[in-house]
């Protein structure tokens, strides 16, 4: 994996050292790969080999379909089990990268007679790709600041908690492969920029294609790279290498991106991509200027420059005008809601509750940074400064990368994932530089010629590293981290400071011995703390599959397997074509595990449909029954955590149902569910709240559990304890009451006069649907 | 973790209510005889008062109140939406009086712009200032601000608080105020028209300036001597963006968090750090953002600048200081994080070591 540097023919000792360093780098990289893979296995060891959470269930279902029916069936797959009655074209609306990757791995393994199940392949795809990602980080950082920084960055990335959170075994989601694709694309861009080779430029376009296949976050690449190109041009760093790195990427990359069905013509029609085209034009104008400058005498050039610049300006203005006209003609300015909320952070919270409601779209607070990148947050500024001394094309790119990603991560906590590689690269550079300076000072002052010390260190290093390979996890990581720093230092010296002059200069640049030792110890402590934190985060915080819950109490471990219990109940006790309604969070799981048709799912493409379900959940029983009945729903599923204290249940998500429902059907008003601006379900709750379907389905018969109806999540007794259901009947409640399934009662026979009476009743209870926008389902 | 975020039942901090001394209600209600002529006179007077103001908010004093409200017989031909203001409380930012007053003006101006003709004379926006018309405050029984009251045509007893605007009605500023008005008066306020951020002539000036400046800028770029070529500027910008983001400032902007809170138990004490990881206060974010940034800056200072210093003792002293500050900063952040999130981060030792 490691691209080996060609040995210098200066002396045999140097060549030997160099070769030794390369072997060591490869060994370290292998260990880093093992580390990256194994730190993500906590979820399998602590729980079981199971797919996690929500989206991965959908990806798993798609992969199953792909492995069973083949690729052509997959492209044409129309899924009628979801978004009833609309259905969803899976092949055209899904990023196929992850599915195709796992499908290919499964197919290769099977043709090698290794009979793994699709699920096993899916579970372990993410850990495998995180090993790839750390190798890609090594390559990228090596291009920027040498292989020492590369190794440091790779080991940091192998265990950065932010990335672990999305790539533990079982977390089978797009990001698992996309982060690798992201880093690898950046590496190839930098490589092309450094070498000016068309070969790498082509590879770069292909890597970009893989990224487009994998994740919607590819827009980050197609905006970051043009920004860097523009930055280079503006700061006078234009070179033919820049042109080779950029122009093929835009042309090939856009053509390839348009091949992915989910992107299609968006690749040329949406504003997210316009920056790249604009810069494409600018770089051609600039290239032309440089070309003319080359063939003309300085005097002639001065005359020509006025002409060229004015023509170029006119062309630019025309193009800008066209773009502005195009953008202005679309209502959102051609930007998708998610991108807009990045540019104007308050946009989503004001206008799009469906985006604002998703937990991963919240802005993070400072503890999030400490949790997700830990001590790297301290090291990044040093890395930024190291990149400025001296500033090169490649180091300016990583600076731009960290600045953009850190800003975006501040808007949406989900983008912390994009920040993590940048933070690792920066911290790797900072650590590498710091270790360089401190160990250099120590070595210089301990006396002796630098050569003999270096040799002594080499021999010291090798056994240490070999021994570390066999040791247990923690000690190994610390030692390896330390030794990787040393390995890097050895490599850097010949690579970065070849001349005698710079070596002499370096000797003068020393720090006092004892403070250097103290600083070194403190840095190692910082690294050790990072390792402890990452292992803890991997083991405790990010390994829970959230489909199986556990809790540790005095009398041992409790396992809550209610979700699978209820999905199994659904698949065994209901008709295969029955429709199940639930909040969108549980849509993917219901289709994947219970194989039943759902109304809405986690692919939140149709706001109105979701708002309809939200409206039903916020309505009184009869109105809800009518909405659900009009959607052919047979069963309603609610998740309730009040008995065991599971906080992310439907009652806690209920305000969003109200908000989203009210956004489309204005007779649902958030204020009706709040008492003095506070959301409560106790005796102070509003009558609207106590009569809505969600309250009733969650708390039906709840008082029978303890006689008081004490809700352990809200820490209060519920407001309305004894009530009967008129239009729904309870058919299943799981062991810990976490999932409750209700069946819609069949419609009653019409009795004269009764309908009229009911109607007047509902209107008197503040249900004025007549004057407002009418709900189409009622 | 793609799922709906959950709501916690955090108790919102209530607005500080301010007590006014309530004197006995001594002013008698003057009996008034009215006919349609005097009604239209009053309306005409209100219209002329309104046209004299900029946003259409009529400034009433005690005299005006008695003239248009107490002495006018019910049903009056108009509703009044009264904003109760107190200049002496403008310094208390948590009351948001000035902001609300501005928004009130926006609603008034939008109402005026959207309702010409007879509809426009059914609702008037007024304000009363505390220092000038204390007796009116007593008349209305207002003892806490912010207070906005709709006096509908049928209300004769001004102490009737049914027309009061709840906190939730002005929480979303002009939009929710307009909703309140539409609900209560059945009048259409229409779309809220906020004054544009830049007026048209300003935009024109800016665009022309840009157009004129472009050739010069390009010339300088080609020569390579702009500010943009200064590395230090880029460096400072990058570090600032980093500081800005890790401090969670975007969170504070989006959620409109204050810099600090007042302790509920002890009003003199200020709370700078909020326990619980879902929220943070402004000062808290900046403090930790500073700690995050300072360690890296010191490290960079030591490795880039300090190594060039010749004096060994100075190096030693500065480095020890830098190490001490860094150590303290990391320790502080770890402590604060554990305190705020309640996580117990612990290493895993081999079981045989226990």
UniProtKB/TrEMBL annotation, chain A:
Residues 463-499 have a biased composition (Basic and acidic residues). Keywords: Glycosyltransferase, Magnesium, Manganese, Membrane, Metal-binding, Transferase, Transmembrane, Transmembrane helix. Residues 449-462 have a biased composition (Polar residues). Residues 23-426 form the Oligosaccharyl transferase STT3 N-terminal domain. InterPro entries: Oligo_trans_STT3 (IPR003674), STT3-PglB_core (IPR048999), STT3_N (IPR048307). Its cofactor is Mg(2+); Mn(2+). It is found in: Endomembrane system. It catalyses: a di-trans,poly-cis-dolichyl diphosphooligosaccharide + L-asparaginyl-[protein] = N(4)-(oligosaccharide-(1->4)-N-acetyl-beta-D-glucosaminyl-(1->4)-N-acetyl-beta-D-glucosaminyl)-L-asparaginyl-[protein] + a di-trans,poly-cis-dolichyl diphosphate + H(+). This is dolichyl-diphosphooligosaccharide--protein glycotransferase. It comes from Camelina sativa.
From TrEMBL, chain B:
Residues 1-30 form the signal peptide. Gene3D superfamilies: Glutaredoxin. InterPro entries: OligosaccharylTrfase_OST3/OST6. It is a multi-pass membrane protein. Keywords: Endoplasmic reticulum, Membrane, Signal, Transmembrane, Transmembrane helix. The chain crosses the membrane at residues 203-222, 234-254, 286-307, 314-330. It is found in: Endoplasmic reticulum membrane. PANTHER family: DOLICHYL-DIPHOSPHOOLIGOSACCHARIDE--PROTEIN GLYCOSYLTRANSFERASE-RELATED, GH11935P. Belongs to the OST3/OST6 family. Subunit of the oligosaccharyl transferase (OST) complex that catalyzes the initial transfer of a defined glycan (Glc(3)Man(9)GlcNAc(2) in eukaryotes) from the lipid carrier dolichol-pyrophosphate to an asparagine residue within an Asn-X-Ser/Thr consensus motif in nascent polypeptide chains, the first step in protein N-glycosylation. N-glycosylation occurs cotranslationally and the complex associates with the Sec61 complex at the channel-forming translocon complex that mediates protein translocation across the endoplasmic reticulum (ER). All subunits are required for a maximal enzyme activity. This is Probable dolichyl-diphosphooligosaccharide--protein glycosyltransferase subunit 3B. It comes from Camelina sativa (False flax). The gene is LOC104703775.
């Amino acid at each position: 994996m490691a691209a080996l540097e060609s040995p210098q023919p200066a002396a045999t000792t140097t060549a030997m050292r160099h070769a030794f360093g390369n072997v060591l780098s490869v060994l370290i990289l292998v260990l880093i790969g093992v580390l990256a893979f194994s730190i993500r296995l906590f979820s399998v060891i602590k729980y079981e080999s199971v797919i996690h959470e929500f989206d991965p269930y959908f990806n798993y279902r798609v992969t199953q379909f792909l492995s069973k029916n083949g690729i052509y069936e997959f492209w044409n797959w129309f899924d009628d089990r979801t978004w009833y009655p609309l259905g969803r074209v899976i092949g055209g609306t899904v990023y196929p990268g992850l599915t195709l990757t796992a499908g290919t791995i499964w197919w290769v393994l099977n043709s090698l007679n290794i009979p793994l199940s699709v699920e096993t392949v899916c579970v372990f795809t993410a850990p495998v790709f995180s090993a790839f990602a750390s190798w890609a980080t090594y390559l990228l950082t090596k291009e920027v600041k040498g292989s020492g920084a590369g190794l440091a960055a790779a080991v940091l990335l192998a265990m950065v908690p932010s990335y672990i959170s999305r790539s533990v075994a079982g977390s089978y989601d797009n990001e698992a492969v996309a982060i690798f694709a992201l880093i690898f694309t950046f590496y190839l861009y930098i490589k092309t920029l450094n070498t000016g080779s068309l070969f790498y430029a082509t590879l770069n376009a292909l890597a970009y294609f893989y990224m487009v296949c994998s994740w919607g976050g590819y827009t980050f690449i197609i905006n970051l790279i043009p920004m860097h190109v523009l930055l280079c041009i503006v700061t006078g760093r234009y070179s033919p290498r820049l042109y080779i790195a950029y122009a093929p990427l835009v042309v090939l990359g856009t053509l390839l991106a348009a091949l992915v069905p989910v992107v299609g013509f968006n690749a040329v029609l949406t504003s997210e991509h316009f920056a790249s085209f604009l810069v494409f034009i600018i770089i051609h104008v600039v290239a032309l200027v440089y070309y003319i400058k080359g063939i003309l005498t300085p005097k002639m050039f001065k005359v020509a420059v006025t002409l060229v610049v004015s023509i170029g300006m006119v062309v630019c203005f025309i193009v800008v005008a066209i773009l502005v006209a195009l953008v202005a003609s679309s209502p959102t300015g051609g930007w998708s809601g998610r991108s807009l909320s990045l540019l104007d952070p308050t946009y989503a919270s004001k206008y799009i509750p469906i985006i604002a409601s998703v937990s991963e779209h919240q802005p993070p607070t400072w503890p999030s940074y400490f949790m997700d990148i830990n001590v790297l947050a301290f090291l990044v500024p040093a890395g930024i400064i190291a990149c400025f001394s001296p500033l090169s094309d490649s180091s300016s790119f990583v600076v731009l990368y960290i600045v953009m990603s850190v800003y975006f991560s501040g808007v949406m906590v989900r983008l912390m994932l994009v920040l993590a590689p940048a933070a690792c690269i920066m911290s790797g550079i900072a650590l590498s530089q710091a270790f360089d300076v401190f160990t250099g000072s120590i070595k210089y002052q301990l006396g002796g010629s630098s050569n003999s010390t270096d040799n002594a260190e080499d021999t010291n290093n090798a056994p240490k590293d070999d021994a570390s390979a066999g040791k247990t996890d923690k000690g190994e990581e610390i030692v390896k981290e330390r030794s990787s720093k040393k390995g890097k230092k050895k490599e850097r010296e010949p690579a970065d400071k070849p001349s005698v002059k710079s070596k002499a200069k370096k000797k003068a640049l020393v720090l006092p011995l004892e403070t250097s030792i103290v600083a070194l110890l403190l840095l190692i402590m910082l690294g050790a703390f990072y390792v402890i934190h990452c292992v803890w985060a991997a083991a405790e915080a990010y390994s829970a599959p959230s489909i199986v819950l556990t809790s540790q109490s005095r009398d041992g471990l409790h396992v809550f397997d209610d979700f699978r219990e209820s999905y199994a109940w659904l698949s065994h006790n209901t008709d295969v074509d029955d429709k199940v309604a639930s909040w969108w969070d549980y849509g993917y799981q219901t289709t994947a595990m219970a194989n039943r048709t759902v109304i809405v799912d986690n692919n939140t493409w149709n706001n109105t449909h979701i708002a309809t379900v939200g409206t039903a959940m916020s309505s009184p029983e009869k109105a809800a029954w009518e909405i659900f009945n009009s959607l052919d729903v047979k069963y309603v599923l609610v998740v309730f955590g009040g008995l065991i204290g599971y906080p992310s249940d439907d009652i806690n998500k209920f305000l969003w149902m109200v908000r989203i429902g009210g956004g489309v059907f204005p007779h649902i008003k958030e204020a009706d569910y709040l008492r003095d601006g506070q959301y409560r379900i106790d005796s102070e709750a509003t009558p609207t709240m106590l009569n809505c379907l969600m309250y009733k389905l969650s708390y039906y018969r709840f008082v029978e559990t303890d006689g008081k109806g004490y809700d352990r999540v809200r820490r209060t007794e519920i407001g309305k304890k004894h009530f009967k259901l008129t239009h729904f009947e309870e058919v299943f409640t799981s062991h810990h009451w976490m999932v409750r399934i209700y069946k819609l009662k069949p419609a009653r026979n019409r009795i004269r006069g009764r309908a009229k009476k009911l109607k007047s009743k509902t209107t008197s209870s503040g249900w004025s649907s007549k004057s407002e926008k009418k709900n189409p389902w009622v | 973790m793609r799922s709906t975020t959950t709501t916690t039942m955090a108790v919102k901090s209530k607005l500080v209510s301010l007590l006014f001394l309530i004197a006995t209600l001594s002013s008698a209600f003057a009996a008034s005889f009215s006919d349609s002529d005097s009604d239209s006179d009053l309306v005409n007077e209100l219209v002329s008062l309104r046209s004299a103001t900029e946003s259409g908010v009529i400034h009433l004093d005690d005299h005006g109140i008695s003239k248009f409200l107490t002495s006018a017989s019910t049903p009056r031909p108009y509703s009044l939406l009264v904003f109760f203001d107190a200049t002496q409380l403008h310094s208390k930012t948590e009351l948001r009086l000035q902001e609300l007053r501005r928004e009130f003006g926006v609603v008034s101006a939008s109402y005026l712009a959207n309702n010409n003709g007879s509809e426009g004379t059914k609702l008037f926006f007024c304000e009363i200032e505390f220092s000038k018309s204390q007796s009116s405050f007593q008349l209305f029984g207002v003892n806490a601000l912010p207070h906005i009251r709709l006096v509908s045509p049928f209300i004769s007893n001004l102490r009737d608080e049914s027309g009061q605007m709840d906190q939730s009605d002005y929480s979303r500023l002009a939009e929710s105020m307009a909703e309140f008005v539409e609900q209560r008066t059945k009048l259409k306020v229409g779309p809220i028209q906020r004054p544009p951020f830049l007026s048209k002539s300003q935009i024109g000036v800016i665009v022309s300036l840009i157009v004129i400046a472009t050739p010069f800028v390009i010339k300088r770029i080609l020569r390579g001597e702009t500010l943009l070529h200064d590395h230090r500027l880029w460096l400072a910008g990058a570090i600032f963006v980093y500081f800005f983001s890790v401090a969670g400032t975007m969170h504070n902007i989006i959620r409109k968090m204050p810099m600090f809170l007042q302790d509920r138990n002890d009003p003199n004490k200020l709370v700078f750090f909020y326990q619980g990881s879902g929220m943070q206060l402004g000062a808290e974010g900046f403090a930790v953002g500073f700690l995050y940034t300072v360690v890296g800056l010191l490290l960079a200072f030591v490795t880039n600048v300090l190594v060039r210093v010749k004096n060994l003792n100075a190096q030693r002293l500065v480095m020890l200081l830098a190490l001490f500050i860094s150590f303290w900063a990391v320790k502080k952040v770890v402590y604060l994080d554990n305190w705020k999130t309640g996580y117990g981060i612990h290493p895993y030792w081999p079981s045989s070591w226990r």
